[in-house]
Amino acid sequence: xxxxxCLHEAQSFLEQNPDIEMFELFILDNNGVPRGKLLHxxxxxxxxxxxxxxxxxxxxxxxxxxxxENSGLVWEVGDIDCxxxxxxxxxQRMPWRLIPTAAVxxxxxxxxxxxxxxxxxxHLLAKVIDGLKADGYYPVMAAELEFYLLDQKPxxxxxxxxxxxxxxxxxxxxxxxxxRELEQIExxxxxxxxxxxxxxxxxxTAISEYAPGQVEITLEHRADALQAMDEAVRYKRLVKGVxxxxxxxxxxxxxxxxxxxxxxxxxxxxxxxxxxxxLFASEATxxxxxxxxxxxxxxxxxxxxxxxxxxxxxxxxxxxxxxxxPLAATWGVDNRTVSLRVPGGPASSRHIEHRICGxxxxxxxxxxxxxxxxxxxxxxxxxxGAPVEGNGYAQAKELLPTDWLTTLRALEGSSWARDAxxxxxxxxxxxxxxxxxxxxxxxxxxQDWRWYLxxx
Length: 456
Fold this sequence. Notes:
Blueprint: H1 7-16, E1 22-28, E2 34-40, H2 44-50, E3 52-55, E4 81-86, E5 92-93, E6 101-108, H3 121-134, E7 138-151, H4 179-183, H5 186-199, E8 203-208, E9 214-219, H6 225-245, E10 248-251, E11 265-272, H7 289-300, H8 302-309, E12 331-333, E13 340-342, E14 352-354, H9 363-379, H10 392-395, H11 404-412, H12 415-421, H13 423-442, H14 446-452
Parallel strand pairs: 1-6, 12-13
Antiparallel strand pairs: 1-2, 3-4, 4-6, 5-6, 7-9, 7-10, 7-11, 8-9, 11-14, 13-14
Helix pairs in contact: 3-9, 5-6, 7-9, 8-9, 8-11, 11-13, 12-13
């Protein structure tokens, strides 16, 4: 696991940023929600010297912020304080804040952070990466995150609506790859790219995506997969913050509109050797035998880990035919109708694009499940079968489940997941997801009244 930050990092930051008054200390929970505290400038050095106590329950909360009693992190341990320490390189300015503020991301200490350490999603990813490295494989990763830019106020029907553009209108048509659509959000993009540069986040290509107000910005791949996911986490916070500054809401919900495209998080992955050479590199577009084994492993573990790719009830509304969201355990070469795509390009760039995750997935958990599947495929020399050619939707023989409960039960009953992720982590994660499922299914709302109030 990457080393925690040293005191010198904080001292240098304070010297170079004398105007900063406050610090947001945050840790990412299993739902990908940042939680923490707002500290005064004078409190920062102590966090680097001796950590900061956070309650054990902070990593066992539902997406609504409720304690989950069955997580083992509440009454049994008396909601004990667990010590978290700053992650190296995470101390960065938040240029959209009115009060001069910086953020520092923390992670639970391996021993001082117990019992919450076992539920820290960043620790899980580090564990999976270390397992691959022990066998001589160094994962290289990048994330592509789609999002909607929405008005902070809903429309007259109460439905979310696209944010107004520079000209004062609202985007109404898809205009995928439209350049004018990017020009119309140029003030937002200018601030976003500036903030990314300030924070060292490698934001690259911007695309007007497949719905009005939908945008995608790619992040450059990193030879350190843990760093890549750290940057994805901070990038998501940054997008939301900059959007708020511009009077908009950046929405990473998997399917915010029933009649428009869902939002995904495409994960790009390859394996390198200790010298950084791409072990998937091949003139053949379907890659090396190692690449195919990696694909085979991911396909074989797809159902067991689907809850980590699609963690919420809404996640499954994204899976629709001919929607560019995958529907089955399929793979192909330069084919966007399958779940695992091997893009074309130079041999040296050969990698796998994992297209299953919703933008609502926790990057740490999604990456951990992807890499654990790859490791299984290599160890067991899994054969993925022939790649799909043409329309993958039409050729899908066995569809992925499209409901939350099925995937929850699949992870719950997976012996592979127990081995790959550990029972301690899974017990907490599954307890949280069961609690959320019960809460979600127990809530009566507008759809129930519209369907059943008069007709039942």
